[in-house]
Amino acid sequence: MSDTHLNGIIRAFESNKPAYTAFAKLDKQTAIEMSDAPYDGIVFEMEHNPYDVSALGDALQYMLNRKQIAESGSVAARVTPIARIPANGVEMNQAFAKQVLDRGAYGVVWPHVATVEQAYNAVASCRYARPKNAPLYEPKGVRGDGPATAARYWGLSVPEYYKKADVWPLAPHGEILVGLMCESTEAIENLDDILSSVPGIGFILIGEGDLSQQLGHPREYEHPVVLDAMRQIVETCHKHKVVVGNPHTTAKNHQRLLEEGYRFLMAAAQRSYGVVGTAREMAGY
After folding, report:
1. For residue 140, what is the DSSP state?
2. CA torsion angle for 85, 257, 242, 165 (degrees, to 10)?
3. What's the DSSP call for residue 82?
4. Which tens digit of pLDDT belongs to each residue from 56-67?
5. Which of 71, 210, 211, 225 is the most buried (most CB within 10 A)?
6. Residue 77 in contact with residue 64, Cβ under 8 Å?
7. How do residues 143-197 score in pLDDT, each as one tens digit?
8. Phi, psi at residue 34, to the nearest 5°?
9. Which residues contact 82 (CB under 8 A, 6 or more apart)?
10. Which residues pair with 44 in a beta bridge?
């Protein structure tokens, strides 16, 4: 196995570069077009779109480009696929995380996480169980064991997959990203405790849509009240050295986002190629 991360988003983070990503629909044509797009990763949308793990499995396969595989010598998709699952809620949703990871996704974005308990569950749901005396035992893994499809997708044997199928940065060799969406005033109030208490969080993604609704300024992303709430999230993430992301990166705001320290930048899918190219150029790569 190579020591180089398969997960392109993690590679960007470890190189101290922003990761450029986009939302994607669960259909084969979108997956094909996104397979060689100028992104580090894509997020398959399964919260507001139908939750369909069969369609996700198909989309993951269409992300694989034979020419790119032959030239790179790695079967990892050039653009790393992760998935946003339905909202965390009281059900805790371990099963949704397990199913997308079992298909081969390299990470899970959890909407509406607002408490330490919900954050702990999100990380635990992406980890396999291990003995209590094992290193990095917490958060205690609760992911059910069914690795065959994911191992095949990653191009690994099952034992190799087990070694890499842990959460980054808690496990430095881990390939799985846990992203938590901070999209309520309760989440902002609890964010310091969440980041202090729960290891293994790969990034915090601000949910500007829901947050702006609660603040009384729906989708007014440049409103001072919304910007101030976002500033609080960014400052808390920086305090804990956790990557913070923005899901509405545009040609208008991407320079400001880079200057404010956002490192997980999301844009609309195909329509945003120019935005991503400009942002990469301004970031120096």
Report:
1. P
2. 40
3. E
4. 999 999 999 889
5. 211
6. yes
7. 999 999 999 999 999 999 999 999 999 999 999 999 999 999 999 999 999 999 9
8. -80, -10
9. 9, 41, 42, 43, 44, 105, 106, 107, 108, 109, 177, 179
10. 24, 83
Instruction: Tell the residue number behind the tokens 């397979």, with chain if given.
Output: 35
Q: What is the mean pLDDT of residues 93-120?
A: 96
In Å, what is the CA distance from 36 to each residue of 42, 103, 192, 202?
11, 20, 37, 24
272: which DSSP letter? G
Question: 44 and 56 in contact (C-beta within 8 Å)?
Answer: yes
Superfamily, domain 8-283:
Phosphoenolpyruvate-binding domains (3.20.20.60)
Bridge partners of 243, per DSSP, are 203
* Amino acid (1-letter code) at residue 28: K
Distance of CA 172 to the CA centre of its chain: 16
Summarised one tens digit per residue, pLDDT across range 206-265 is: 999 999 999 999 999 999 999 999 999 999 999 999 999 999 998 888 899 999 999 999
Which tokens is 172 given? 């430095």
DSSP letter at 87 equals: P
Query: Alpha-carbon distance 116 to 119, whole Å?
Result: 5
CB atoms within 10 A of CB 109: 32
Q: What is the mean pLDDT of residues 23-28?
A: 90
Q: To which residue do tokens 């709430």 refer?
A: 229
Give CA–CA dist 253/165, Å, rounded. Answer: 35
Listed by start position, the domains of the chain span 8-283
**What is residue 78's predicted lDDT score, i.e. its pLDDT?**
93
pTM of the model: 0.92
- Taking each helix axis as running N to C, give the angle between helix 94-103 and helix 53-62, from 0 to 180 degrees, rounded to the nearest 10: 30
Nearest Cα to Cα of residue 193 among 116, 266, 136 = 116
